[in-house]
């Protein structure tokens, strides 16, 4: 039986891909609509006040919704949260219902829906934004949050190629 070889990945791509990250579902509202997307480029960026950064592809409408509303919510995925990854990895159009079939905790956060299956969430206010190549880097002040499952462990993500998701 012939073994199928994977295309070689250059050393720089391998090195970039090995930068570990968590996995999150970023949720945001625009008027009566709400959506979510799978995010991995998230980092704490300050203690006082508590700040985070998140990278969103420039062509995603979610970045525009964050800029317009000034808020978003970050739902942290725990080990075993593959269902959330599958649900959000395909992406949604602005008018498509993103939370169909999922339990959402009402009135927990102002930025976007809080997912019951998340291990924790952070509610954030936009503090600034810069363009970084093909992504927008959003700086946000954390204004609320909670741990929903204290015994859960965060899901960690490492890519094989640092030039692709």
Task: Explain what you see.
By secondary structure, the protein is mainly β. It has a single domain (21-155), classed as Pnp Oxidase, Chain A, CATH 2.30.110.10. Helices cover 15% and strands 40% of the residues. It has helices at residues 11-17, 61-69, 82-89; strands at residues 21-22, 24-30, 33-39, 42-46, 51-57, 71-76, 104-105, 114-115, 120-132, 135-147, 156-157. The protein has a 7-stranded antiparallel beta sheet with strand order 3-2-6-9-10-5-4. It is globular and about 50 Å long.
Main sheet: strand order: 3-2-6-9-10-5-4
Provide the CATH superfamily.
Electron Transport, Fmn-binding Protein, Chain A
Q: Find the CATH topology.
A: Pnp Oxidase, Chain A
Largest sheet, described in full?
A: 7 strands, antiparallel
Mean pLDDT: 93
CA radius of gyration? 16 Å
Q: Compute the separation of the termini in Å.
A: 31 Å
Set out the fold topology.
Blueprint: H1 11-17, E1 21-22, E2 24-30, E3 33-39, E4 42-46, E5 51-57, H2 61-69, E6 71-76, H3 82-89, E7 104-105, E8 114-115, E9 120-132, E10 135-147, E11 156-157
Antiparallel strand pairs: 1-11, 2-3, 2-6, 4-5, 5-10, 6-9, 7-8, 9-10
Give a quick precis of the structure.
With 165 residues, the chain is mostly beta strands.
Task: Name some characteristics of this structure.
single chain, 165 residues, Pnp Oxidase, Chain A, globular, 7-stranded antiparallel β-sheet, mainly beta
């Amino acid at each position: 039986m012939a073994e199928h070889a994977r295309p070689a990945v250059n050393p720089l791509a391998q090195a970039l891909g090995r930068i570990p990250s968590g996995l999150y579902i970023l949720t945001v509202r625009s008027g009566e609509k709400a959506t979510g997307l799978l995010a991995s480029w998230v980092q704490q960026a300050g203690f006082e006040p508590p700040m985070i950064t998140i990278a969103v592809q420039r062509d995603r409408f979610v970045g525009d919704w964050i800029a317009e509303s000034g808020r978003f919510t970050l739902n942290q995925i725990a080990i075993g949260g593959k269902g959330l990854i599958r649900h959000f990895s395909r992406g949604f159009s602005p008018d498509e219902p993103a939370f169909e079939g999922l339990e959402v905790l009402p009135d927990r956060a102002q930025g976007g829906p809080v997912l019951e299956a998340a291990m924790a969430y952070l509610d954030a206010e936009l503090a600034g934004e810069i363009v970084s190549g093909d992504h927008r880097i959003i700086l946000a002040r954390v204004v609320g949050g909670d741990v929903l499952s204290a015994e859960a462990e965060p899901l960690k993500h490492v890519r094989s190629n640092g030039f692709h998701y």
